[in-house]
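Q: For a teaching handout, I want to show students what a protein-ligand complex looks like in token form. Below are the inputs, and the small molecule is zinc ion. Please produce the holo structure.
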Amino acid sequence: MKVVLPDNSELELPEGATGLDAARAIGPKLAEQAVLVRSNGHVQDLRLPLENGQPIQILTTRDSQDPDALAVLRHSSAHLLAEAVKRLYPGVKIAIGPAIENGFYYDFDFPEPIHEDDLPRIEDEIRREIAEGRSWAREEVPADEARRRFEQEGEPYKVELVGTAQGAISFYTQGQFTDLCRGPHLQDARPIKAIKLTGLAGAYWRGDEHNKQLTRIYGTAFYSQADLDAYLERVEEAKRRDHRKLGRQLELFSLQESSPGSPFWHPKGMVIWNALEDLRRRENAKRGYVEVKTPLLYDIDTYITSGHYENYRENMYFVQGHEGEKPLALKPMNCPGHMLLFGERRRSYRELPLRYAESSTLHRDERGGTLHGLLRVRHITQDDAHVFVTEDQIQDEIHGMVEYARFLYDLFGLDARAELSTRPDKRLGTDEQWDRAEAALEEALKRNEIEYTISPGEGTFYGPKIDLHMTDSLGRSWQVGTIQLDYQMPMQFGLAYFGADNAEHHPVVIHRALLGSLERFIGILIEHYAGAFPVWLAPVQVRVIPVGEDHRDAAHALEDKLEGLRVDVDERDETVGKRIRDAEVEKVPYVIVYGDKESDEALAVRKRGGEQFTLSLDALRAEISERASIQ
Ligand SMILES: [Zn+2]
Ligand SMILES: [Zn+2]
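A: Here is the structure, written as tokens, with zinc ion included.
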């Protein structure tokens, strides 16, 4: 039989040959370094037979950054972790241990609770296993035999997993440890050059809170120590930048038990909030959006019409009014309000595109455990808009939106990437409509030169969509914006306009948010900038520090002369050094220390980052004004 290699050449192999056989046929070095076979986007264990005509790519220890190569290394590390824990803690029961983004975990049922300071001992045990040498053997076994084996070993979680397993049951064995596992695994443990256990957490068996809570041990592993070091450095940097920590330190926002998932915005946080609101208003106005305001509460009938009652009820908050009144619900999205507004009177084609923008408060009942600072909240404010168009206008409108998104992300130095989700199996509308809609979205991405991937079948049932992702300064990707075409909701609400032909037509609506939730976006910005906001967003742009009591009047006079900028005066009875350090902690972009020698002609200016120079008031005002404007 033959398999096809990545360069399209064919490799002749005996019938039943495995991935490892293919690697050996190519060369002994490749066979030694091989970790995995990838075929048509799927991964396959090296020990499994190949099929005639199968395209294969053999991943090796040199593919040290490849997500699949890392996953097989990490999942194999999880097996080593389970073996180590069983050796150290007699009576422990094991559950599951997958690879995850950036690492792996394994869930255990310990007879006695363990603590963070037990992790180094377990880590040492894993290193001992690697030093002793471990290789993985794969075997397929009948379900009965698998069940019997785990019953004998006293592993109830594994017995349960055998009961729900689909397809053939396979075991992987290393040393004295055998696990129920589909694979794939490394040949042996030698490629695991760096491993670290990173933490402990509670986790319910099968993710169900009615089940027993197990202990999850997290870890990560790499093909080199240097990669692990770089990763740990990034993690540390992310911790330093954690928006919850910086949010407190910079007095931007706080969260309180009395209203979970709903941030309290402090005065300095509101400066950033309002800067984004101003940006939204100004840029929307330039692009022909009109601002509207629609109610927060609607009756259930409205949500039945919009489909939210059917599809989104679990995430909505209901409000029971007085006896005999219909229950109401807080809006989780602005669409129903905008549909009702459009439908309030007859429309003409001359009014289209009609672009309704609203950054109203929305409420979504995110489950308590999933709330996370500003990144996952219940009180959400989107830079939302609904644009009503004729079918002919779709192309230009989408193009304008993608261009707008690009402008916004560039402003923050965030790299944009898009994901185009196309027609799912279950859908409304004709194939011709879908063809046109998908083509319009893709064309807009191409014209704006935004890197994109296609997710086939991932569109909503009412239309295709573009999800906009951005990469921050730590290389992390966030989904922020979305542009969704929708043929259905206007029909559900019976919306129509009179065309040039004098006949009634349904408009198409485009739902779009570009920054997404402002709460979340600010959370991302805090981490992206590590709290050191650009001048136009900085809550305090200039701080004046009078050296002594005698300089306070002059400091306040300077504050007045810098009118239009956000200036404050720190006249606390602290040393100048202490006040300068505090301004650094608050990441104020410009600090002016005002003493005997200072005047409008010569000001001692310290820029954030440590640079110091002397500038006249006019020159300083010109520089800051320039940086404070984003036009
Ligand atoms: Zn496994
Ligand atoms: Zn919408």
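A: Two things your students might notice: The first helix runs from residue 19 to 26. The two ends are 64 Å apart (CA to CA).
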